[in-house]
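Researcher: Quick one. two chains, 1140 residues in total.
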Amino acid sequence: MLKRYLPILTWLPHYTLRLFGADLLAGVIVTIMVIPQSLAYAILAGLPAVVGLYASLLPLLAYTLFGTSRTLAVGPVAILALMTGAALVNVATPGSTAYLEAATALALLSGLMLAAMGLMKLGFFANFLSHPVISGFLTASGILIATSQAANLLGISGSGFTVVELAVSLTANIANIHWPTLAIGAGCLGFLVLMRSRGKALLQWLGVGKGLASLIAKAGPVFAVVATTLLSWQFALAEKGVAVVGIIPQGLPPFSFPSLDLPLWRELLIPALLISIVGFVESVSMGQMLAAKRRQRISPNQELIGLGSANIAAAISSGMPVTGGLSRTVINFDAGAQTPAAGAFAALGIGLVTLSFTPLLHHLPIATLAATITVSILTLVDTQMIRQTWRYSRSDFAAMAATIALTLVEGVEAGIIAGVTLSIGLFLYRTSRPHSALVGRVPGTEHFRNMARHEVESVSHVALLRVDESLYFANARYLEDTVYTLVASHPELEHVVLICSAVNLIDASALESLDAINARLKDSGVTLHLAEVKGPVMDRLKNSDFLDELTGRVFLSTYSAWSELKQPRE
Amino acid sequence: MLKRYLPILTWLPHYTLRLFGADLLAGVIVTIMVIPQSLAYAILAGLPAVVGLYASLLPLLAYTLFGTSRTLAVGPVAILALMTGAALVNVATPGSTAYLEAATALALLSGLMLAAMGLMKLGFFANFLSHPVISGFLTASGILIATSQAANLLGISGSGFTVVELAVSLTANIANIHWPTLAIGAGCLGFLVLMRSRGKALLQWLGVGKGLASLIAKAGPVFAVVATTLLSWQFALAEKGVAVVGIIPQGLPPFSFPSLDLPLWRELLIPALLISIVGFVESVSMGQMLAAKRRQRISPNQELIGLGSANIAAAISSGMPVTGGLSRTVINFDAGAQTPAAGAFAALGIGLVTLSFTPLLHHLPIATLAATITVSILTLVDTQMIRQTWRYSRSDFAAMAATIALTLVEGVEAGIIAGVTLSIGLFLYRTSRPHSALVGRVPGTEHFRNMARHEVESVSHVALLRVDESLYFANARYLEDTVYTLVASHPELEHVVLICSAVNLIDASALESLDAINARLKDSGVTLHLAEVKGPVMDRLKNSDFLDELTGRVFLSTYSAWSELKQPRE
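Model:
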């Protein structure tokens, strides 16, 4: 029981020196690798760069205690940063104290929601984001984020949370391009794209071992940061108008007590919910994928608690909403992390950096960070998935296209809400017209098949109607219509048998419809029977008056109904 | 085609003198009967009483043209009046011109939505309100409306749209009870309850014929109105503090051009949508019930257009949102209406009243109207349905209870939204854990049954897994888990056969899950096969790469899979 809620107890007692060595190495590598992206995502959310470091510290320790994935690395991620910025800009001015406070309030709210969902075992909720919707949302968010970085790469001002806002803002300032900034941005962009696409092969060609080559290629952003920081410091580029990170306060994250302002919470409620869901889906799908690679398992409900605790930790340490990040997790996994202790070591590393080394980041150009974001975010754009979905299912594609369009034009919240609503709507629409078939007997057997597709025996005074879906409120009326149409078009009918072999559930609405069908058939002199009712469904029916009212019988098999009814009434 | 969108063309050409006589009589009766409730519902919505008359005029003509029900009577109804009041009070002050304008804007918006939904054939949307949710919503609304009338019956001021608001407001003013008002209110209440419960029997006992007795008993509100108006006029009760209807402008409804103010529309969007849905559900379920009694049919999609046109008509004639009303429809049906022409005659009657007879209503006490509403609304409270639902299904009951509680405590909008969300949520939760079973062969046959329930043959290296539900995003992951658990617990497995006889759909998310299952089983040396894939599902799969990747085969029947695989690999 305790182990279930504190997964650390499952691995810590068996911790060995070998695991320690592997985790420590991974921790050191992650520390160095995630500094650029942590700073970048904080800036993307409109927050001071240091907030990104704060959010990569305590949350990691919390996840080490409560998380079930062995390799997930928690911290600020691009999508959540974008969503955070979009939410905060509605309640406070970027740069103000209120904005910082709202960020911790958002993290707290989202953390509480995640933890509550975990305790209530609502992990299954994540299933309601269909794959095409997730993929469409990530693609559109990637495009949005890349566009939002264009201003930083060009050295102009420009902001917004929709493509329209961004386009207007960029066009208005396009004349003010700051060429030195653009040079740094474009240089980094080229270097990073090269490292990502050809780096490993290039290094191996130069004689570097395969593992090291892969690691160095991944460290592209670190080299870019070091090189451009040195450049910027050497030539005092900040004085020439190149935007740099500037002063980062030294020291551990200050304790923050998130605002308990009710109107603020009310305004952040929906954004916090969406951030929680998107963060959870991103994190858990990656966690499952990586766990599968090592034949481990993660528990979605405990993951909710783990991510919830990480966000609460972010909230009390001046951070921002966090989740399991794609790129930092892949780095952690590739660097050989074996247990969540690797996360704790990375937290210690980041702690060391904030304590002592932040002055080194002073001259880091913002354009370098923008290039880092742009390159890493474009992996989210999944054109192959778009093509596949189009080929496979037009309605899934419609949900995906709507998600992409709304995310781009109306922003991340509208996009994700529209996507979920459409997925659910399309599904309900499909099941609201359940498949049903009139069946007949395969001659000489006890089998019954669809009359429209097979050569089968039938008699005109008995209709054997097989219903291929559970009966519930959304399709109850459709069933009524089907039966009434059947009876209206076959005046010689004496018996209607509903074959319930595929009916796993009859809810209260469907029960009322069955009542109505029974009464209406009675008026027309037609008897209603049921056949092949499953055990649990039958138990339920016995709790209602339906079986007393039923004009006909409940047959165990279609064959026994057939044998009993095939002789017409005298 | 034209007939489909103008159903009047289906009956007008065959109109006879006999039908004319019947419709004319029904029209006259409806005119007299609906005056009290039309006034009362307008007051319930916080509007001047005359708006109720206006809304019973042009909308009826519009429905006569576009509606498909032969007997539905359109006009203001209690629930919509309550919802209208709750919506308008957020955007304007009752009594102001802005409030009146918002009412027509709400009617227009709701009319446009209904008509658009009709043209887009979205009538099936109404199915998403499950019966228990509708019944819970009506019950709670009935209680709310009855409570809101207590102030008028007691002659005190008191208002609100939740039981809390109403209770606070009533308690604060309870000391100011106006005894003459209470006397009129209580007198009417007693009289109306008596007429409703015993009136018909009493009149028959006095020797009145059955049909006439029924009609007179239903006319209770008319007698109450006439008697208390005369009383109030005779004794000048208005001067003694009894609230009366007061001056009602004479003349046909003035033309109104609803405000096109965008922020106002935005605020009214959700209320208009809810009013449209609730109005449609109330109207269409009653229409279907009555049509069934006379073996007629109504078309839900065309009904949307009919109700939409009625609301647009209300919007341009200084009215309020309307729909098919329960009590006025029953009156119309019982009075023998044969075609929608009865509605047109009632509209003419109401027109005559607004033109000439409104001064007669000047002295009508508000308490009389309150008594009328209270008695008619209590038919909505359906305790039997609550008990039945409790017995039959706890989850349906939970949705119903939440709807009732939220409607009472948070108001009609919150109630209906919670009800729909819960219904859909519960359904998705159920289908997100699809029923599946490992099956084995019934010895000596080609039948396969659940191994857990029947004595069947099986071999340890083949798992025959029957999935009893369509595969889609919400249950795709559950299927993955099921298969992985199966493989993990049966190391001797060589083949997994998914029997898809109950699978009517595999959406894009489920396809990805099947891909993942296939890849993961391949890693473990297990072959994945499909069996009994339905035609349409197979066609879809052929549009994807899945069949190329599939490690095993697609078998036509479970038996052929069994015959092929039952010999272990060499």
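The CA atoms of residues 167 and 363 of chain B lie 29 Å apart.
Researcher: Thanks, that's what I needed.
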